[in-house]
């Protein structure tokens, strides 16, 4: 008879070891892996497909409840048993709501543990049989994903690319419906990890040093944020950036596509090989613009370059930090660039800068803000059935950008 496969999740290695020992004489149970954190648990469960996941509640970074929630969505065939200590009862209800099938209070005996595992496994088996083949077919885990690449770009730094890329990615991931990867392509000074308060261990540079660049290698370098978002971070030091070439990025994007619904790339503010590779792979290029004339001038040039590269149909223009006090409004920007603004995110320094400093994306920390509302609109549009998506092109009205700039110049006295 096939043994019941078990993954042990606990941040304390001695606890994992003692649980392993408790199960070593159980002839019908096999421990197939151990994870020291919630995010590692998700990664291993996706790889190993254990029948049972023994999950500790209290873990740093991502606690067992959030990990259970994500596991239930991503690897529904693995059943979670929560391990808790006396006094954590308040969490048990939340754990069961998150999708755990059973809980067991520490310290437990080998009989108690093996009994819980056998009971949960039997119920799951019966459920599987009752659901039959249709349930297997509906399991979303192994289906190839559509891998829609969204590439964020702007003509200069500080416009809000990372802010918007991070918040869009977190919002999409937090729905629990989509598998989302955020790739930091600002290789020298990427700050995606800081925005998300994640500590990079292995980064994109490590992937390039592997003997073969395949998905397993990439997967071992991904971090999981508590929203469920997976992140490929930039190298930890600027000098490691040169280890990563455009060919690497091309291969990485090709490898990850079947595993994710959305792949969001945060680029540097320059046309160079790596950003061009991400534009080629992209379904949409999100050009972030602010309401200052130098940025508008350079954005106009960027639109021309992207047109020359046959990418203009992919471009979505986002006006960030908009607001009356900025002098120009959305209509001014549309006229100046002769391009429709798809989204407008207001200036909100109080909430947004505080969010970065705390490492909590504003869509989570300030969900009621106008900026968060703007991000939600993006998520809605992205997750609409495809044909209903917006048409970015704007019908020509302005003969020349320079005419327009001169007009604005007169108004502002320069
Ligand atoms: N709409 C906004 N309102 C206020 N501050 C913003 C807004 N968007 C971004 N910022 C702030 O501007 C700074 C630079 O943003 P960032 O996303 O790092 O820009 P980029 O990635 O284009 O260099 C950050 O401190 C961020 O919090
Ligand atoms: Mg940035």
Report on the structure:
The chain has 414 residues and is an alpha/beta fold. The protein folds into two domains: 4-138, Response regulator (Rossmann fold, 3-Layer(aba) Sandwich), CATH 3.40.50.2300; 148-412, 3-Layer(aba) Sandwich (Rossmann fold), CATH 3.40.50.300. The chain is built from 17 helices and 13 strands. The strands form two sheets. Strands 8-9-7-10-6-11-12-13 form an eight-stranded mixed sheet, with helices on both faces. Helix 4 (89-98) links the parallel strand 4 (79-85) and strand 5 (102-106). The longest helix is centred in the first third of the chain and has 29 residues, at 110-138. It is elongated. Residues 137-141 and 388-414 have low confidence and may be disordered.
Labels describing this entry:
five-stranded parallel beta sheet; 414 residues; 17 helices; binds magnesium ion; eight-stranded mixed beta sheet; Rossmann fold; disordered C terminus; 2 domains; alpha/beta; 17% strand; binds adenosine-5'-diphosphate
Helix/strand layout:
Elements (H helix, E strand, L loop, with lengths): L3 E6 L3 H11 L5 E7 L2 H11 L3 E5 L7 H11 L4 E7 L3 H10 L3 E5 L3 H29 L9 E6 L7 H14 L5 E5 L7 H4 L8 H5 L6 H5 L3 E2 L5 E3 L13 H11 L5 E5 L6 H9 L2 E6 L3 H16 L6 E8 L7 H8 L3 E6 L2 H10 L3 H4 L4 H13 L18 H12 L2
Parallel strand pairs: 1-2, 1-3, 3-4, 4-5, 6-10, 6-11, 7-9, 7-10, 11-12, 12-13
Antiparallel strand pairs: 8-9
Helix pairs in contact: 2-3, 3-4, 6-16, 10-11
The site of magnesium ion has 5 residues, from helix 6.
């Amino acid at each position: 008879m096939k043994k019941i496969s078990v993954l042990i999740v606990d941040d304390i290695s001695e606890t994992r070891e003692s649980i392993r020992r408790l199960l070593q004489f159980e002839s019908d149970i096999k421990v197939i892996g151990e994870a020291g954190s919630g995010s590692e648990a998700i990664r291993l469960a996706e790889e190993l497909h254990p029948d049972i996941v023994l999950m500790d509640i209290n873990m740093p970074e991502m606690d067992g409840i959030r990990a259970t929630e994500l596991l239930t969505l991503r690897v529904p065939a693995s059943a979670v048993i929560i391990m808790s200590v006396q006094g954590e009862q308040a969490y048990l209800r939340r754990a069961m709501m998150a999708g755990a099938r059973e809980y067991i209070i520490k310290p437990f005996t080998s009989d108690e543990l093996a009994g819980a595992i056998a009971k949960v496994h039997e119920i799951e088996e019966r459920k599987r049989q009752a659901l039959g083949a249709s349930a297997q077919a509906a399991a979303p885990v192994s289906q190839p994903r559509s891998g829609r690449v969204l590439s964020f770009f702007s003509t200069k730094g500080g416009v809000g690319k990372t802010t918007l890329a991070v918040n869009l990615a977190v919002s999409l991931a937090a729905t629990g419906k989509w598998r989302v990867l955020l790739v930091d392509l600002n290789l020298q000074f990427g700050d995606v990890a800081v925005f998300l308060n994640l500590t990079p261990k292995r980064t994109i540079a490590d992937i390039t040093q592997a003997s073969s660049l395949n998905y397993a290698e990439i997967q071992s370098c991904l971090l999981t944020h508590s929203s469920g978002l997976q992140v490929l971070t930039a190298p930890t030091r600027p000098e490691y950036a040169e280890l990563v070439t455009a060919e690497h990025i091309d291969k990485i994007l090709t490898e990850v596509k079947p595993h994710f619904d959305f792949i969001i790339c945060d680029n540097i503010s320059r046309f160079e090989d790596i950003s061009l590779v991400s534009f080629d792979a992209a379904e949409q290029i999100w050009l972030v613009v602010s309401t200052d004339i130098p940025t508008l001038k350079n954005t106009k040039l960027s639109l021309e370059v992207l047109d020359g590269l046959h990418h203009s149909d992919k471009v979505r223009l986002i006006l960030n930090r908009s607001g009356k006090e900025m002098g120009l409004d959305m209509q001014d920007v549309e006229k100046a660039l002769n391009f429709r603004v798809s989204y407008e995110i207001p200036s909100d320094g109080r909430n947004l800068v505080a969010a970065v400093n705390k490492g909590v994306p504003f869509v989570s920390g300030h969900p009621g803000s106008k900026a968060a509302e703007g991000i939600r609109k993006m998520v809605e549009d992205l997750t609409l059935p495809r044909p209903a998506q917006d048409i970015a092109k704007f019908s020509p009205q302005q003969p020349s950008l320079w005419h327009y700039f001169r007009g604005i110049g007169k108004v502002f006295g320069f």
